[in-house]
Amino acid sequence: MHNRFPRISSTVAFVFAFLIALPAHAKGETDETWFGIAFHGSKVGYTRTRARKVVVDDAPAIHLDRWWVITVRRREQVIKMEHKLDLWFTPSGTPIRYSLQRNEGGEVRTGRGERKGDAFVVHHTVGGRTRMRSFPLTPNLRLASSMEWLHLQTPQPGLQLEGQVIDETEGQQQPFTLRVEKSAKDGSPGVYVIHESVGGVATQGEVDEKGLRRVELVGAGIVMSRSSAEEAVRLDEAVDIFSAAMFQVEVRLPPRDALDGLTLRFTADRPIKISDFRGQRKSSVKGGVEVVTEAAKTPRRGYRLPIKGKKFQRYLSATDYEDLEDQKLVSTSRRVVADARDSWTAAKRINAFVHGHLEDKTLAHAFASATEAFEQRAGDCTEHAVLFSALAKIAGVPTKLVTGLVYVGGARPAFGYHEWVEVWLGNRWHPMDPTFGQDVADATHVKFSEGISDADGLQEAGLAAAALIGDVDLEIASWTVEGRTVAKP
């Protein structure tokens, strides 16, 4: 296998992190529930939740502890993601504290939060860097993972709630909604349907007299089903999500760099969400969506550095995964950019550096930070993209992370999930691919989402990718080379 063969974007793995905030209903003084976790019908892991009534600071409280494990393969690499969450809150829902440990393919992340006066303060550590956030402790602020204990022990049909919760996975405040309906789609008696959303991530659960029996992460193909402990932990073989996420095609394309454009057809028995972007337009066709891409033009010049302005602030900002004050990254960016005075020259130099610096094009990581990628000199498309982004931002070049598909040749041509970058050149965003070392990302790059490496951006990228896995077919309709369009034979 070519060592630059792109895999399913590791942002899809990030979607699994949201399972930690999904309901895992428990009743009584102390109770334990187990769920098996499936991804598009294949078993990939399990979760266990225990609930206890305790005393904290001489006052009644609830302690929930959750443990979940996801194990998948990417070709020969087995990736294990394990999360452990403990949280304490009052019976009325006021947050007291929480602690979180995450190990995702070898990358360790930790988080903790605690009540301090009239604020709830959280500390999260990624790539050796700890970030602190403080949220006003308003009467309706809750911990995301406490909501089912508070409202689903005795479901009330017609109940509708909204407010703000702290998502323990990323330590951020998110909008929250919850709605309870009577009866499930299958007509089971005594079953309630719970519609829940945290920060735009929607779940649909079913609750019966024993508690939660099933919950689905809407649009991502992830389902949790109540199980015994023995059945939950049983995993016959790790699912190869690398292969499962590939779109095999019948046509072998010319060299990617020679393509001026491409027409693809996505078909499925359900709606397909793909958007228009610069250099990419979509239209509805029978049974699906047709996407036409155009090769980006090679820029003549960039914009004078550093680029500033309110509209670029988000694309120049640090994130938990991009520490722009890391002196190793700062000194490297300055050395690589050297005397470049415009964004195009700087971006080309950074692109060449990242492509060469990450020598081990491995699939063994989940989503590493820029610092981790730099130090380990290893990673796949996401590590290339996040390291490029950090170095470019330090140089004053606004940068986006882009998730989508890219064409892969070889014995069985296919399209695979991929991540690349876009940089601002003064009058437009320009696509570059540090994984392939392309200063102009070729026309086989099909864009699904764009953002930065914050919680919102990673969430959007993961959901966009996961939504197209499983039952979507891809066909090459035509391609253009040197102004001549070639239709599928």
Largest sheet: 16 strands, mixed
Identify the quaternary structure here. single chain
Using DSSP, what is the number of strands? 26
Low-confidence stretches: 1-14, 17-29
Tell me what the structure shows.
- The strands form 3 sheets. The chain has a 16-stranded mixed sheet that branches.
- A hairpin with a 4-residue loop joins strand 14 (211-217) and strand 15 (222-227).
- It has 9 helices and 26 strands.
- Residues 1-14 and 17-29 have low confidence and may be disordered.
- The chain is an alpha+beta fold.
Short structural description:
It is built from nine helices and 26 strands.
Show the helix and strand layout.
Layout: H1 11-16, E1 30-39, E2 42-56, E3 59-74, E4 77-89, E5 95-104, E6 107-116, E7 119-126, E8 129-136, E9 142-143, H2 147-151, E10 160-167, E11 172-182, E12 192-198, E13 201-208, E14 211-217, E15 222-227, H3 229-233, E16 239-240, H4 241-244, E17 247-248, E18 261-267, E19 280-285, E20 288-294, H5 327-337, H6 343-357, H7 370-376, H8 381-394, E21 399-408, E22 414-424, E23 429-432, E24 446-451, H9 455-466, E25 473-481, E26 484-487
Parallel strand pairs: 3-16, 9-10
Antiparallel strand pairs: 1-2, 1-15, 2-3, 3-4, 4-5, 5-6, 6-7, 7-8, 10-11, 11-12, 12-13, 13-14, 14-15, 17-22, 18-20, 18-25, 19-20, 21-22, 21-24, 22-23, 25-26
